[in-house]
Amino acid sequence: MYDTVDTIAAIATPIGESGIGIIRISGRDAYAVGDKIFQSKSNLPLAKRRDHSIQYGHIIDENGYSIDEVLVLLMKGPKSYTAEDVMEIQCHGGHQSLEEILALILRQGARLANPGEFTERAFINGRIDLAQAEAVMDIIQAKSKAGLTNAVSQLEGKLSELVKKMRIHLTELITRLEVMVDYPEEDLEDITVPDVAEALQNIQKKLQILLEESRSGKMIRDGVMIAITGTPNAGKSSLLNQLVQEDRAIVTEIPGTTRDSIEVWITLKGVPICLIDTAGIRETADTVEQIGVSRAKKYLNTADMVIVMVDGSRSLTADDVGILEASRYQNAIIVMNKEDLPVHVNKKVLSEYGHPMITISAVNGSGIQDLQNKIIDLVLDKGIIEGKSALLTNTRHIDLVRRSGEAINRALDTIQNNMPVDCAIVDIREAWELLGSITGDTIHDDIVSEIFSRFCLGK
Amino acid sequence: MFVVDTYDVIIVGAGHAGCEAALASARLGVKTLMATLNLDNIALMPCNPAVGGPGKSHLVREIDALGGEMAINTDKTCLQMRMLNTGKGPAVYSLRAQSDKKLYQSTMTKTLENQINLDVKQIMVTKLLVESGKIKGIETELGEIYQAKCVILATGTYLKGKIIIGDCAYSGGPIGQRSAEDLSESLLKNGIQLMRFKTGTPARVDRRTLRFSEMSEQKGDVKGHAFSFLSQRTECNKQSCWLTFTNEETHRIIRNNLDRAPMCNGLIQGIGPRYCPSIESKIVRFADKKRHQLFIEPEGEMTEEMYVQGMSTSLPTDVQYDFLRTIPGLEDVKIMRPGYAIEYDCLDPTQLTLSLETKKISGLFSAGQSNGTSGYEEAAAQGLIAGINAALKVQKKEPFILTRAEAYMGVLIDDLVTKGTNEPYRIMTSRSEYRLILRQDNADLRLTEKGYQLGLVTQERYTVFLKKKNDIENAIEKLKAISITPTEENQKKLKNMGTAPIRTGLRAYDLLRRTDLDYEMLRTQFPLEKLDDDVREEIEIMIKYEGYIQRQQEQVEKMNRLERKLMPKNIIYADIDTLSGEARQKLDQIRPHSLGQASRISGVSPADITALLIVLEQRQREEK
């Protein structure tokens, strides 16, 4: 449904373009949502604090954990960009931090803004004129078009297929419930409470799986984090340079976003990729070997994929093995460097880790093309996403799937609390509509048509 | 030319739409004529002898809340009443009455004939008088002229009506009446587009030839019910319905004779309703179904005719006899009137505005089955709205429009004029997106104030309404004021009622939320007043379903933002190049009242709505 009342939120800064990220919340409940997630010394509700002020504090999730240290800007309507109550959160620009905060905000009751929606509201509320609005919208549209690569649209096609299937199940369920209500005297088999509960639980399970896998899917739209690990002198920096040289469209290089690494953004075949160079880490007094292993382990937990670099011109060291062991159960590519030199490494040992292996020379660039292809293969449906649907590539879809899951949960609660079926239908229909807005079809007539085609009714 | 008389409003037709339209118009104080082609058949029920059911009972209650007649007339003439769907939630409770057909007609006729400002006449209307896009009156088959400021078409299935039984077809209305042969031409000449629909009805049989021992009896509820908020709830159980089933033999006979069915032999071209199929199409479409149920319903106390609900057919009478006699209880059946199909002309309702006025001819309204609907209740609801709006137009007042969030009437009319229909349209509760709000119990709370403002609700009804509203508020306050602490004494009271003990103190109001408690149970343990049935039911629903109702209320508020943005009357959609081609064409055809209505037109996307929003804002700024 088209909506101009609810509170919307979105990341206002482009990915990877700055060390600071901004999340904007606008609408009637902007401060109510803010109060739920922002903690600072002052206990005053945000709405009571001084207009156009900057507040220092932390973003706290539902479990009381601090996600990030932030500055919050308060701009009360109508003196704000959208002329509504606006709150802007300045946090660390690292992708994860921004995403986590946004996800938290959405869970607390805001809706993800559509592309250009802040501008649209600014216009509707009389803040800017049409020419200004159009100019902004043009930029937004151009951007989102460019973002739609083949890889992304391929996956979205699969997503709508899956969502359509789920909607068919829901339509069936709704139809069976509605027909009972609208034709109470027909000679039809009544659907029982356990039937409804089972059907809802099935859908719920599917939505849950979709959500759990959403992280790997989201990489494609929002960037895949790849950590390059390996012992010193394995050639990490050279590889990074090679990958970067290949790609003229580097966004920027930002030090310090995750506080101890260098992130470099590139795009491979339209998929944004964030390369994390562990070589950029300042070395400490600890022994280098230990640092190499512990860093690798750290990135293994946070990155979507790991490139383990080994120097092919020498035998594996204990540190190499340590890193390889740590990557055993991760999405990893083993890159054997220094192809140009005589090979001394034991390939058989390497192959036991079960990761794809690529031989390159980071010095003369041979094998780089193969590596790029392998990365994309893994990102698409062969490697990383193998066995998973990984279809939720954008935050809007994730938000919709999450909300329909919540609606299904409420419906389950309703029937388990012995409330009448009519009350459950409210939420089942909501879930059905939310899923429909992923595929773009939310038509009420579907249900009525379905009733007539499936059941024999009438006087 | 003989000008007989001049009226403010003329209603063509005296079926369920015509009656409500005529009464509403006259009650609003304008000079009204109701023209019917047969004075003996006012408020005829040509199909089943029943009023109400899911969605339909909601409409009847709404008609009543606004000061219409259908509910009162049904209460006065019922043979039995049942409340359906009681286990499925308060929003879908549905009252259904079996009516005494003849009594229903004569009771309504008397009301009409005694209505101030209303004349009722037997007239065959053959022509509309239109001058430069405005209605001026009607011409009769005798060449007489009646002048009028507004005309409401409520022609039901009579426009070029054609009756079909087997291979026999003839022009006519239902139950041996005349059809209106010439009016269609006049409409077409004036640029109104017509569709051809079909519906059907089963045989009426002789009660004395039925074996009731072979069928199961269906009595009305012992508990008293009433459609009207003004009627007393008294038990009504004068006659029973009887349930029986078809079997494989019935189906075999029908299958063997399909080639003789008008739907197969090409005699029927009109589009029939999917929800009211003939028995022959049920057997074709649901071939694997082993049996179909049917109800034998009484037609009235002064007749032995009975209605075979579920067996609508237009097969030849020899086949009708054959298959009916395979059914338990109908072995010796004698048919009094055979089942038949009827084809008729009706208006494509997308030519109407939400006030049910045609966009093409100012002052011409249309209501009921002639707008492509089906059902007495749907017809009556439209009749009431058309009658109100014709009178308001005469009085130069703004039209009266109910939204989808206010009434099933709003859903019905919005669906019709926004989306059109390609088969006779029936209301269903699943057509409403705000079902928990549009309940039949609160139709008065939703609408009576509006009816009073219009001048249609009498002082008597308004007083009853105010008292109920007041009683509800007081009862809720009282429940909130009683706090129950977890003392030994209170826990014992809870135990007496068979409900779980409490851990912390709460109000009687909160306790009533429990699914295993109701107000009467609470009253046995706590000092609560005795309440009228309707007040008690209302507060129980309001409290028990509060969370759900509130959520729907929020959905309504969201949608209202778009509903409140009205489209300028002079907007030229073709000039808005940010709209898609399809949207431009559809918007121009429907000419929506509000942005909300625009968003429901098929082919108008959310992007188109954004574009419209921007255009509206621009225009507003220019005006400033």
Automatic annotation (TrEMBL), chain A:
InterPro entries: G_TrmE, GTP-bd, GTP-bd_TrmE_N, GTPase_MnmE, MnmE_dom2, MnmE_helical, P-loop_NTPase, Small_GTP-bd. GO terms for molecular function: GTP binding; GTPase activity; identical protein binding; metal ion binding. CDD domains: trmE, TrmE_N. Its EC number is 3.6.-.-. The keyword Hydrolase applies. PANTHER family: TRNA MODIFICATION GTPASE GTPBP3, TRNA MODIFICATION GTPASE GTPBP3, MITOCHONDRIAL. This is tRNA modification GTPase MnmE. It comes from Megasphaera paucivorans.
TrEMBL record, chain B:
The keyword Secreted does not apply. PROSITE patterns: GIDA_1 (PS01280), GIDA_2 (PS01281). GO terms for biological process: tRNA methylation; tRNA wobble uridine modification. Its main location: cytoplasm. This is tRNA uridine 5-carboxymethylaminomethyl modification enzyme MnmG. It comes from Megasphaera paucivorans. The gene is mnmG. InterPro entries: FAD/NAD-bd_sf, GIDA_C_N, MnmG, MnmG-rel, MnmG-rel_CS, MnmG_C, MnmG_C_subdom, MnmG_C_subdom_sf. Its cofactor is FAD. Keywords: Cytoplasm, FAD, Flavoprotein, NAD, tRNA processing. NAD(+) binds at residues 272-286.
